[in-house]
Amino acid sequence: MAEANHLPNSFTAKTNFGDFHVRIVGNEYINIGGKNDCVQIFYDSYKNMGKLDRLETEKGGCSLSDDDIKGEKTIKMTDLGFTILRKLYPSVKEVTLIDSAKFPCKLPNGSRASMSYKQFFLLLKGKTYYQDRFEATPEFPQEVQALLDFEKNRKDIQRKPKTFNFMNPSLQAILTPIYDTCSTWETFIKKLQELYNRDVCQIMFPWYLYAYAAIMNMEITTFWKIDISKRPTISFEIKDEKEVQKYTRKNLVYDPSTFWGGFIYQIQYSNKAAHIVKNRVTTRKLKRDRKD
Asked: How confident is the model over 174-230, as pLDDT tens digits?
């Protein structure tokens, strides 16, 4: 077991992207957040490595200033945890994680459906979230090739069926014309992202797992690792702990909702894509007229 360097058990870390409450419990658990603990890293003394037990920003309260922590700030907040882990245990080079997180997608009828980050992000980017943002690699070497094959299959004309069941009558009518104009899964998914932007999850929810299965040769597990020696060091200033006392703290435990059943597929979808395409054409025409 490596001997820990000294840091206060509880302090405020002031960074250039926000102030965070840091709690170090028994030199094993590093908790970072504001009203909620949004990052938790466990130090495994037997393996001399870390484990990313929690990365959750959905409910907010991740910084003491209550600023929204998302996108690039989420990555920096996590890297702050890795930085603190390295300060405590400089010999630690690796952090493991289980990529099984889900996120709530708001559907057209106002309800929320639980979707897998891993499968959804792979369809959108060809990489998982942790691959894309933290350069994570699968814990099992054979899965590296499976991910390379997935990216190749997204771009392969032969892997895209001539027809596809979108599991919803209104979606079938909306998406089939778009699907027919795209030669690969990659171009089809990119087209949906262009048309629906932040609403793309509600368009993909009924069928995204079937598309994932059509592209992936071998299912990959949820076990990943991050080489934190290659992650950036986050500069922070330790501030007076009294500043965090005014916040009511609670520990966040992620409780994913149950997966929605077939009844959700009866939602009526409007053909938003047609309106977006029409509006974009009109906008481009107006811009050309002004130049003329």
From this structure: 999 999 999 999 999 999 999 999 899 999 999 999 999 999 988 887 899 999 999
Distance between CA atoms of 54 and 42, rounded to whole angstroms?
A: 9
Give the number of other Cβ atoms within 10 Å of residue 116's Cβ. 19
pTM, 2 dp: 0.78
Domain chopping of the chain, boundaries: 7-92, 99-134+150-224+260-286
How are the residues of the chain apportioned to helix, strand and coil, as percentages rounded to the nearest 5?
40, 20, 40
Query: Which are the contacts of 215, defined by CB distance < 8 A and separation ≥ 6?
Result: 123, 150, 153, 154, 159, 185
Q: Output the six-digit token pair for 179.
A: 């699907």
Q: Name the E strands within 34-174.
A: 37-44, 49-55, 94-98, 102-106, 112-116, 137-138
What are the phi and psi torsion angles at 164 (to 5°)?
-150, 140
